[in-house]
């Protein structure tokens, strides 16, 4: 092989790859046109082959080092750079994408909240009117503890916080995923879960209110509930989106409607999971902690809820 002739023939490719890499390193991969991205990938493979050939022919160390550096830069931008862009896309979703999809799907989330509140109001009304109603909704063990022993059940978590936190998170995730999957029943199962959870909360709230334990009860619920309950409403909204696609596809074919509304439901799920994980940690470690005063728990709970509302209200500038 005529080394000088081979270098002269291949050197323009090396120089072109260097130019493209400099641009990507300064401005990112998005600064390239689609044709330039294809060219970058092609040149990287070509230069990698040149490096292998140069090693086989035992060419000079300077040339080998230059080609090695060039291929390393190419690898970093094409492969590691794509992973960085994936992480950047995740960050952008949680920064702007999730608030946007919550705003777009707010009527469905509001419908889930309305059904939850309907169940809570029904439970509150009947629990005051009919004492036997309570036993049909709330476990008898909790009723006896509150009425007979005049104490709440949260103290049972203290001492087993990690186990309790993981169990709470798993339970909340199962309820939320059930609400999302309930959309496949045209939203009927989703509606049932929203009303049932409302009934349960309403009945328990009435029980503790009747026994003068409302203040410590809500001090326990508010820190984690400020994230947990909105997450359940998001799950209900996701289920109703799927139900909408099945019942009222509108201008879409039903399969296309499922893809369109299903994609929004999935985006809501991406928001639900971290909310419930954080809520589970708070419920396992912070909410039942006897060393934390009730007023401080109220402050933390309200602060988290206000922060969540502000976050979901965000709008990206220029859109």
In short:
It contains eleven helices and no strands. It is an all-alpha fold and 319 residues long. The protein is elongated, with a radius of gyration of 29 Å.
Which labels suit this protein?
single chain, 319 residues, mainly alpha, 11 helices, elongated
Structural notes for this entry:
- The chain is mostly helical.
- It has eleven helices and no strands.
- It has helices spanning 3-27, 34-56, 61-104, 106-129, 131-135, 140-147, 161-181, 188-210, 214-247, 254-286, 294-312.
- The chain is elongated.
- The mean pLDDT is 86.
Determine the mean pLDDT. 86
Q: What coarse outline follows from CA principal-axis ratios?
A: elongated
Radius of gyration using CA atoms only? 29 Å
Helix percent band: over 70%
Can you lay out the helices and strands and say which pair or pack?
Blueprint: H1 3-27, H2 34-56, H3 61-104, H4 106-129, H5 131-135, H6 140-147, H7 161-181, H8 188-210, H9 214-247, H10 254-286, H11 294-312
Helix pairs in contact: 1-2, 1-3, 2-3, 3-10, 4-8, 4-9, 7-8, 7-9, 7-10, 8-9, 9-10, 9-11
